[in-house]
Amino acid sequence: MTAMKALLNPQLSFIPISSLCAGKSPNWTPNHHIGTLFNLHSKNLGLRIGSRTCFTARAVLESATIDQFGLSESDIRNPAVSSTYRSSELPKPNQTVLDAQARVCTGPTQTKPLSEEQATKVLDTILKSARGELKDEEEVSKAQMGAFFAGMTIRANAFPEATQWSEGERRAMNTFWPLLVRALPPDVIFIADPEGSIIGAGSSIGPRFVGNSSSEMRLVGALREVLAGGHLGFEEVQGVLRDVLPLKMDNDDAIPSGRMNRETDRELKAYCLAFDDELGPPPVADVRSLTHYGEPYDGNTRFFRSTLFVAAVRSCYGESCLLHGVEWLPPKGGITEEQMLKFMGANTNLSPLQAKTLIEDEEIGFAYVSQREARPSLYSLISLREHIKKRPPLATTEKVQQFVRARGKEAIVSGFYHEGYEEPLLMLMKRRGVHAGLVVKGEEGALSMTTRSRSLNSSKGLPVNYCSGFRAAGLGVSEVDGVSLESFSLEVNAKDYGIEPTDTPRTDRSVTKNIELGLAALHGKKGPAYDRIILNAGMVDHLLGCDGAEDISVALDRAREAIDSGRALKRLLNYIKNSKKVQK
After folding, report:
1. In whole angstroms, what is the distance from residue 447 CA to residue 275 CA?
2. Nearest 5°: phi and psi at 438?
3. What is the DSSP letter of 523?
4. Each residue of 107-139: pLDDT tens digit?
5. Per-domain residue ranges of the chain
6. Rg for the chain (alpha carbons), in Å?
7. Range with the lowest mean pLDDT among 237-251, 288-302, 304-318?
8. Any idea what DSSP says for residue 280?
């Protein structure tokens, strides 16, 4: 308990490592220790709030060596670093091919053609793997092969001249294709040359390939359209997704679905809504307001991720919040809410119904739901998503979900990075029928606004802290489900609201560092993390049109009071404790 108090109580400042290691039982494990570290008791809910905070958990955990704990290297992982949350059961992709995918499996303007030497190395690696000459991590999965060749095919059929095949790629393919066509499985050959017309020595396998079952036939037909540079209809996308999902862990026959040509609105809607009824209708929470937070599921790798702590603040004055995501996801494999909650001892296996109970709890008012529990079919794609390298359409649509509904008003907040995705996200939010929606261009594509000044050398395009959205209004130019909506867009400058510019705190994949920053802020420690939480609570309240937030300064003061009174911290501790007790 002493280590936990060091993290959650500002009055404790030093805990020697020896006190953690002494007297451990024969059954002691790192995960058991973490559970003990954050095993909350009622007496911890009355912590005093102060500004002199000294946290040592990160130093304690990161200083503990394998020798001190008497564990073999295979028995321990460092829970302080986000990348260690990757499941050891997931097969690793071949790095040579993965690096090539990063170049060729991207958009019409971002693709970087390979040189002849690079293409030769990739094709030789694929050929050796197809012949069974590579094992374990060196093996190239069919998902990787499919993603690479799909990228090459779409480039040849639909990309502008500058990002079509280079002369080096064509020479390498002409050399290797006669060998590849004898070694690759038919479905990969189909993806590489679906009409037998891309590669000089064409094969008849691609044009004749149809699949074995009715579901495979539908999939092959859809792929022919996509590989030619075309798009699919709403029903086509939904039908294919329901045919192929969920994937099995050992399924190496998965067809890749990366993002190269920009999706149409109907394709995005199909991805967004395809599994709404997978576990039945969502439970309805008896609350007057519920905000769904759609952070990027692959997390933050550089900067403080504040949304969990913002939710604890907003819940203090009746703005209930639902967070959702996964523990770990490629390509970034960064810090997520699930990692932080799991590290602090919360139950991260809540069903939507259990989350509803916590949202309705007057001493909590927010919850987190893992995609694993709410959409198991989509969660089954994690391994595939690592092997296809680039973000699939799901990276956009999974941020616009409603795993729990509300009797009162609902709103969705999401982050974006690439310009052009703000309008599709808002379109999906309106399709969901919510009363308000907000997209934020935050750092790393997350949804949190920063307090730092805008760089004079900032890149072209929309700036960080650009916000766009809609909210209910008395009079508006559009209407969704009978509710008049007004649209808005602006760039938020924290200094305009009395918050001095500061750089966003760095976390660099450290889960404990992110927790320390958030808990210090909820303890009332003033600084960049505190200001960022205040800004994102008050500004979101204002932009969504929440009650009592018409005046931005009043909204910000309300958020400050929630922290300085200790109520926000108490709600977070209540959540950690009660999430383990909530009835199924």
Report:
1. 24
2. -145, 130
3. T
4. 899 999 999 999 999 999 999 999 999 988 799
5. 95-210, 284-580
6. 25
7. 237-251
8. S
Q: How far is residue 323's CA from residue 311's CA, in Å, rounded to a whole number? A: 8
Q: Which residues face 466 on adjacent strands?
A: 441, 491
Q: Can you give the three-state secondary structure of 140-199, one letter per residue?
A: CCHHHHHHHHHHHHHHHHHCCHHHCCCHHHHHHHHHHHHHHHHHCCHHHHHHHCCCCCCC
- Classified by CATH at the fold level, domain 284-580 comes out as Pyrimidine Nucleoside Phosphorylase; Chain A, domain 2 (3.40.1030)
pTM metric for this prediction:
0.87
Strand order in the sheet with 478-480: 366-370, 320-325, 289-294, 409-415, 436-441, 466-472, 483-491, 478-480
Q: How far is CA 471 from the centre of its chain?
A: 25
The first and second tokens of residue 436, run together, are 């308000």
- Give one DSSP letter per residue of 212-254, joined into a string: SSHHHHHHHHHHHHHHTT----HHHHHHHHHHH-SPPTT---P
Joined tokens for residue 420 = 């052009």
Q: How do 466-472 and 483-491 pair as beta strands?
A: antiparallel
Residue 553's SS3 state is: helix
Taking only the tens place, the pLDDT of each residue in 219-238 is 999 999 999 999 999 999 99
Q: How far apart are CA 139 and CA 125, in angstroms?
A: 9
Q: Under 8 Å CB-to-CB from 451, ≥6 apart: which residues?
A: 494, 499, 500, 501, 502, 504, 528, 531, 532, 535
Residue (of 90, 396, 405) closest to 262 by Cα position: 396
